[in-house]
Write a structure and sequence with these properties.
- The protein is α/β, with parallel strands linked by helices and 281 residues long.
- It has a nine-stranded mixed sheet, with helices on both faces.
- Helix 10 crosses helix 11.
Length: 281
């Protein structure tokens, strides 16, 4: 008999419409960007989004880290397994995002902000490099009152596994805390992705507060190094960082797994219930 996974996976992040274009280095220089940046837009970056549309034949793609992850997961899972939370505007870009989610079978539980447009992310591609500039707009207005509303909290109660990106610390730390505490109290699996090096650097106290409740932590080698520095681990060697983070205090008896990717290089996996640090080529 097939396992019932209806609503088993819930994710939170910033739903953004990606504006992707191949550009020249002159455009990067004009907006003071580096080839592999991942930054939040400041006022001087705002004209960039229209420039990409007007001059660089940009593509509009559904984005948002966790929303893309859940779309992919839902394609592999039985129908109605995944639900995504985030904030959008009441506009055409929100309809494009929802349409892409619907096509993948992903159910969206958006908070709709009628005062701000749906967020966007400029993707500037130069050769093998990609510079990202995010204008969160409506996405940054997400509030814990949305998820704790009884009709929406029902999705949290129904789920068994939660996936939240570190980006969301900048938006609604209270929502992360509420979901993490629910998972802890009900012996469910709570996972997070570090998402970007600035998360560990500028939201260190948020990471430290939440880490005891995290059962699985994901990140890449750059984020791992930033986390090691923020937590003062005394090493930047990725296997040691993974093991030390896995062994940090936990709020339950459940083991913690840490998964660090390195692009085309090996993936490092450490767990609090094993002395072995596994490396997968």
């Amino acid at each position: 008999m097939a396992q019932n996974l209806r609503g088993a996976l819930v994710g939170f992040c910033n739903p953004l419409l990606d504006i992707s274009a191949v550009v020249d280095e002159g455009l990067l220089a004009e907006y003071k960007l580096n080839a592999d940046d991942a930054i939040m837009a400041s006022p001087e970056h705002l004209p960039l989004f229209q420039t990409l549309m007007d001059k660089y034949n940009a593509q509009l793609l559904p984005g948002g880290s966790a929303q893309n992850t859940l779309r992919g997961a839902q394609l592999l899972l039985p129908a109605d397994s995944a639900v995504f939370f985030g904030a959008v505007g009441a506009d055409e870009n929100a309809r494009l995002l929802k349409g892409a989610a619907d096509k993948a079978g992903l159910r969206t539980n958006y908070m709709v902000n009628k005062e701000k447009p749906t967020g966007t992310c400029a993707l500037l591609i130069t050769g093998k490099h990609r510079s990202m500039v995010a204008n969160l707009s409506a996405a940054e207005s997400y509030d814990v009152s949305h998820v704790t509303a009884p009709a929406n909290w029902a999705d949290i109660e129904a789920a068994r596994l939660y996936y939240i990106t570190g980006f969301f610390f900048a938006v609604s730390d209270a929502s992360i805390d509420a979901v993490a505490k629910h998972a802890l109290a009900n012996n469910k699996t709570f996972t997070m992705n570090l998402s970007a090096s600035f998360v560990a650097e500028f939201f260190t106290s948020h990471v430290e507060k939440t880490l005891p409740m995290i059962n699985i932590l994901f990140g890449n080698e750059v984020e791992a190094a930033a986390l090691a520095k923020a937590l003062k681990l005394g090493t930047s060697e990725i296997r040691q960082v993974a093991k030390r983070v896995a062994d940090m205090p936990r709020a339950s008896d459940r083991p913690r797994m840490v998964v660090f990717t390195q692009g085309a290089q090996s993936t490092v996996v450490a767990s609090s219930d094993s002395d072995e640090v596994r490396v997968y080529p």
